[in-house]
Specification:
The complex is a heterodimer of chains A (about 350) and B (about 500). Chain A is mainly α. Chain A has 15 helices and 2 strands. By secondary structure, chain B is of the alpha/beta class. In chain B, a hairpin with a 2-residue loop joins strand 17 and strand 18. Classes of the chains: A mainly alpha (about 350), B alpha/beta (about 500). Chains A and B meet through helix 9 and helix 10 of A and strand 1, helix 10, helix 11 and strand 18 of B.
Chain lengths: ~350, ~500
């Protein structure tokens, strides 16, 4: 007989062990899925998880993909810890990209060192504003932030389409719905020459900034009263009020922070790899970041690792599409499985599996 | 014998809750089950009522083997239980609530008739068509009892039934229980109110650390000897102390606060003066505005500035941390989830209320080392039994966590400390330690406000005394100038003579 027995205290080993187990379980289940699709499962898993690490060009791309995921997931993790569920980071990412691009295009041709910081500020402000809508509705009317933030993603997507077809369209672009390519001082500098990167790397300044934000977020969470209040709020809301935390201010701070970071990620994407505003800009980073946040245990350092693993499935997945003719949807299923296994295995943090008859603990 | 138990054992991970427990109950006997919190009383009755199954041992009912695997089994065998916390739907009628608790379906009209008959027979007046939300706590308990009686039980288990009742309601309940006993129904009565047990019970079984340590005739014992059997040591008398009140520290004037919770209580026109060096007691039946009053004093609920004055400065609009920095501290009733965050460590929970007054942060950055040291000091000073400061609050027993919560506030040297139910669900030794620490605090010149449903506790501790009923507070009276009967009337909403 197999039984689940409650643990006296949540297991710290399992807390960090389950994400690893989830990745392994995903590999196994994914392998079965690929076998059913008629592919060699070992080859497919190898292509997705190992090849990108061995190949220097893919390795660079890993950082480019991971940066926005990590940025967004760190922002989301603060809210998730407080029990505030911002599901609309994708929307905040899009408006951040639009606002940043608009500033860049407004100063088209201006060779100025202040332009990129200004674009970044605009992107963060726009993302914050977009997140303030669900925050305000939640505080004022008790509207569910999950639904409001999610629905605003589709509004943001339509806004992007309207912008590239209208005000921000390239005047010399044959009516294609896209902006002109940014001039040099509106494009994030590449980190060429950094040790470990290739000559033709696409790793940009935004990746470095995302990396710097990881320890800062950790300090905020662990060492600052704001991080502490956020954790108390999520763990015991009445105790938080008793300790003097105002719930509404936590709602504004958490949604604002995640909106700002998602907006910044959007700006980095548009001023980095894309170099122009295009309708295909949003690739679901805002949604994938939710998986990254949980896979990383809502801990900034864990999120960095989880962001790299998730980026691996993107890059490896693309390689698998090219090399093995795997369907694109198979990769989405693959990423979904990862969250599924993580949530399922989470029970091991609070419970242990016991085999055999009921034992008597001493 | 009606129920005969031998060698009963139940272990949970990390703790043996019951070990080799044996006792018996005769038909019509009122049998007390006595013990501190954590002595294993709940586990034992849960096994009798089929909620948990024993690891070893035998139970026999009416001379036949009895091993219920569910409460439904237990009820079918004639065992019923009234829980300390009621499971009633406020928006449904008495009859609907009782119907939900019955194992077989009964036509509404038949059920109403049976409810009337049973409630008349046992002196438990009850109207089947009234809504639970309109009933007093005592009446709600009647609903639970009538629900059990409809199943014609041979053994009725009652878990701390008087903790929510006024002294008059207790008398009515005892009359009913005596009547039941006369008709041959055995009653297993769980309580730690020793006076009640001496008045009501025929025999008592005393548990300590999961084992039966004594069986006695409560009438032949004193409350003190019973308590000593429960805790296994001898008790010291509390020192007699009557303070000369100092200057006024906190003054409430016409404090009113409407509630927006349908089951909350509106506070109206509360006047109260707390002076240095004085312990003020507020008695009242649960749910008469105690929680609301504590929230208003802690700063979780805000009122007009002038309604609360601290050192004569208006503070009604200040939040919890501003009040803490002035020296007004509080400890709410609910330990887990309100006074402490259950999943967080004791160090975290020290940070929860100690940050401002103990200067556990600079520029918003937290000094975890200092917080851990303060937590260690609380643990040492208040004899909190815990493996360490990293232990989550949830892992502590009720008494230990309460000692931690009270200690955390006392050691911040408050000028005014408000505590709600400081010894609720706490064993006798821990309760005595907590009361002593609050008295000691008052002796240093602080003012202590104790809100409690335990009249004995209030009588023992207080210098002045008031009663809260329906969100209104009576005038304060010096302790000793008021009788238990008078307090009982006031708790029921009547005015003092």
């Amino acid at each position: 007989m197999i039984r689940l027995e409650p643990r006296l205290a949540p297991s710290r080993t399992m807390m960090w062990g389950t994400p690893v187990l989830a990745v392994i379980a995903t590999m196994i289940a994914g392998g079965i899925l690929f076998a059913i699709l008629g592919k060699n499962p070992v080859e497919a898993i190898w292509t997705i998880f190992v090849d990108p690490i061995l190949d220097p060009y893919s390795r660079d791309e890993l950082f480019v993909k991971a940066a926005p995921l990590v940025l967004i997931a760190i922002g989301l993790s603060f809210g998730f810890r407080a029990g505030i569920w911002n599901i609309g980071a994708e929307g905040q990412f899009i408006v951040g990209a639009i606002a940043g691009a608009a500033v860049g295009l407004a100063f088209y041709g201006t060779p100025a060192i202040w332009l990129l910081p200004l674009m970044a500020l605009a992107g963060m402000a726009a993302g914050t504003f977009w997140a303030m809508i669900p925050a305000f509705l939640k505080v004022r009317y008790n509207a569910n932030e999950i639904l409001v933030s999610l629905m605003l993603v589709y509004v943001a997507d339509q806004l992007l389409r309207a912008m590239v077809a209208g005000p921000l369209r390239n005047p010399a672009g044959f009516n294609f719905p896209e902006s002109r390519l940014f001039h040099d001082s509106a494009v994030l500098p590449l980190l060429q020459g950094m040790p470990g990167l290739t000559q033709y790397t696409r790793v940009h300044l935004g990746v470095l900034i995302a990396l710097i934000l990881v320890p800062l977020a950790w300090v905020l969470l662990r060492k600052h009263v704001l991080g502490f209040n956020i954790q108390v709020m999520g763990s015991a809301p009445r105790a938080a009020r008793f300790s003097g935390v105002r719930p509404s201010s936590i709602v504004y701070i958490c949604l604002g922070l995640s909106g700002a970071l998602a907006g910044l990620a959007g700006l980095f994407e548009v001023a980095g790899p894309a170099g122009q505003l295009v309708p295909a800009l949003p690739q679901g980073y805002g949604f994938t970041a939710i998986i990254v946040a949980f896979l990383g245990r809502l801990n900034p350092l864990g999120i960095l690792a989880a962001g790299l693993v998730m980026a691996l499935t993107y890059i490896g997945g693309e390689n698998a599409q090219l090399d093995l003719n795997l369907p694109r949807a198979a990769i989405s299923v693959f990423q979904g499985m990862l969250l599924f296994f993580l949530l399922g295995l989470d029970i091991l943090v609070r419970y242990r599996i016991r085999f055999g008859a009921r034992g008597i603990a001493q | 014998m009606l129920l005969d138990i031998s060698g009963l054992r139940k272990a949970y991970p990390g703790v043996v809750a019951n070990d080799d427990v044996a006792f018996d109950i005769a038909p019509g006997e009122v049998h007390a089950l006595l013990g501190e919190n954590g002595a294993g009383k709940s586990t034992l009755v849960k096994m009798i009522y089929g909620l948990v199954q024993p690891d070893a041992g035998h139970m026999r009912l009416h001379g036949r083997d009895y091993a219920p695997t569910s409460p439904k089994d237990a009820r079918a065998a004639g065992v019923s239980m009234v829980f300390q916390h009621f499971s009633l739907f406020e928006a449904l009628s008495v009859r609907e609530n009782i119907a939900l608790g019955l194992d077989e379906a009964v036509a509404p009209r038949t059920l109403s008739d049976r409810i009337r008959t049973v409630s008349r027979d046992y002196g438990l007046p009850l109207d089947p068509d009234r809504l639970i939300g309109d009933l007093s706590v005592g009446e709600r308990q009647r609903v639970e009892i009538v629900r059990c009686l409809l199943q014609d039980p041979r053994l009725l288990i009652m878990d701390e039934p008087t903790s929510v009742l006024t002294p008059q309601e207790v008398e009515t309940l005892f009359d009913t229980l005596r009547l039941l006993s006369k008709r041959g129904v055995a009653i297993l009565y769980i309580s730690h109110k020793l006076d009640e047990i001496r008045v009501l019970c025929d025999r008592a079984t005393i548990l300590r650390g999961g084992k039966v340590v004594a069986t006695c005739l409560p009438r032949d014992e004193t409350p003190r000897s019973l308590a000593e059997m429960m805790i296994g040591t001898t008790l010291a008398d509390p020192p007699v102390r009557r303070a000369i009140p100092g200057r006024t520290l906190l003054k409430l004037t016409g404090l009113s606060l409407p509630t927006d919770d349908p089951f909350g209580v509106t506070l109206s026109g509360i006047d109260l003066t707390l002076r240095a060096g004085e312990v003020t007691g507020i008695a009242g039946v649960a749910g008469n505005g105690q929680d609301e009053l504590v929230a208003v004093l802690s700063g979780e609920a805000l009122v007009e500035a002038g309604m609360i004055r601290f050192d004569n400065a208006p503070i009604g609009t200040l939040g919890p941390n501003r009040r803490r920095s002035l020296g007004l501290l509080s400890a709410p009733e609910e330990r887990l989830g309100h006074a402490a965050a259950p999943e967080m460590s004791l160090t975290d929970n020290t940070m929860l209320t100690g940050r401002v007054r103990q200067r556990l942060s600079t520029q918003g950055f937290l000094k975890w080392n200092v917080a851990a040291n303060f937590a260690r000091a609380v643990i040492a000073q208040f004899d909190v039994r815990t493996p360490g400061v990293d232990t989550p609050a949830r892992a502590l027993s009720g008494g230990n966590l309460q000692k931690f919560v009270i200690g955390r506030e006392v050691m911040q040297k408050p000028r005014v400390l408000v505590v709600n139910q400081p010894t609720w669900g706490v064993d006798a030794a821990a309760a005595a330690a907590i009361r002593q620490s609050l008295r000691d605090l008052a002796a240093t010149g602080a003012s202590v406000l104790v809100i409690s449903q335990d009249l004995d506790e209030l009588m023992e501790m207080s210098d002045q005394f008031a009663v809260i009923a329906g969100g209104r507070l009576s005038a304060t009276r010096p302790a000793g100038s008021i009788s238990i009967e008078e307090i009982g009337r006031m708790m029921g909403g009547g005015e003092a003579a």
